[in-house]
Amino acid sequence: MDVEQGGVDPRFGLGKNELVELIEERDHTKLEEYGGVEGVCKKLGIDPETGITGDELRGNGLGARKEAFGSNEFKYPPPKSFFKLCFIAFQDLTILI
Questions:
Q1: Which end of the chain is more exposed for a tag (fewer CB within 10 A), N or C?
Q2: pLDDT, the chain, mean
Q3: Torsion sign, CA atoms 15, 69, 3, 23
Q4: What pLDDT was estimated at residue 3?
Q5: Are 16 and 74 in contact, with CB atoms under 8 Å apart?
Q6: Torsion angles phi and psi, residue 79, rounded to 5
């Protein structure tokens, strides 16, 4: 299965979709199937005490994680224009009265 489609990258024991499911569903039985938090950390190649160290990110470490799991950035919606905000405000009943 393609990693972009949620398949498991061979460098890691879990795929993006599996991680999303663990987080969104808060499924403790699934977490226990992976060996708890320590098991998930082991599959992802992370030390549960120190996390990902700078040494691990040098070279292709960060690139491999970005490729497998995507960027860890929130995509904000574009801001509303001033005129859109005025239009919305003038639809308010208290302003119309």
A1: C
A2: 79
A3: positive
A4: 45
A5: no
A6: -70, 155
